[in-house]
Amino acid sequence: MSTVADIARPAKPALAASQENSGAAPSLAGAGRAEIARALGDLGVPENQRRMRVAQLWQWIYGRGATGFDDMSNVGKELRGALGDHFSLARPQIVSAQLSADGTRKWLLRSQPGTSAPAEFECVYIPEEDRGTLCISSQVGCSLTCSFCHTGTQRLLRNLTAAEVAGQILVARDALGEWPGAERPTDGALPLAPRAITNIVLMGMGEPLHNFDNVRDAMATASDNEGLGYSKRRITLSTSGVVPQIARWGAEAGTMLAISLHAVRDELRDELVPINRKHPIRDLLAACRAYPGVSNARRITFEYVMLDGINDSDADARELVRLMAGIPAKINLIPFNPWPGTAYDCSPWDRIEAFAEIINRAGYSSPVRSPRGRDIMAACGQLKSASERQASEVKASKAGAKSS
Ligand code: SAH
Ligand code: SF4
Question: Catalytic: 380?
Answer without folding.
Answer: yes
